[in-house]
């Protein structure tokens, strides 16, 4: 039985921009990574590596493939919005019908679509 999503991997066209996006904007933490024999990073949420970044591979021609986006549960909508605005990173903020969940959609520097989901009680 599946117990949950372990991680997803991003092939970074620009390694430093990719790290900055996921750490400074999204709020993940760069953390320990075993020596895998190639450069990269493991980015953590609540002590768990959830995003792996490859720094040594070419980005495929069909960037998104069949995966549309990756979504994170998040907190601190106002602060996250302020970080995105300060960096000039485009995003779309909308409210999910029914549940009222705030959804912030954006693209990482490599073209991957990212969704950040915030509790309906938060204020943008």
UniProtKB/TrEMBL annotation:
Q: The VOC domain covers which part of the protein?
A: 4-119
Q: Which SUPFAM superfamilies match?
A: Glyoxalase/Bleomycin resistance protein/Dihydroxybiphenyl dioxygenase
Q: Which InterPro entries match?
A: Glyas_Bleomycin-R_OHBP_Dase, Glyas_Fos-R_dOase_dom, VOC_core
Q: What is this protein called?
A: VOC family protein
State the taxonomy lineage.
Bacteria, Pseudomonadati, Pseudomonadota, Betaproteobacteria, Burkholderiales
């Amino acid at each position: 039985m599946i117990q949950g999503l372990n991680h997803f991997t991003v092939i970074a066209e620009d390694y430093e921009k990719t790290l900055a996006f996921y750490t400074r904007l999204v709020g993940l933490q760069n953390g320990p990574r075993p020596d895998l024999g190639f450069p990269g990073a493991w980015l953590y949420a609540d002590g768990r590596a959830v995003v792996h970044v490859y720094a040594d591979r070419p980005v495929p021609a069909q960037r998104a493939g069949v995966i549309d986006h990756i979504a994170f549960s998040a907190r601190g909508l106002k602060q996250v919005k302020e970080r995105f605005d300060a960096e000039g990173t485009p995003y779309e903020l909308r409210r999910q019908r029914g549940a009222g969940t705030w959804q912030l959609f954006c693209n990482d520097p490599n073209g991957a679509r990212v969704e950040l989901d915030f509790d309906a009680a938060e204020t943008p």
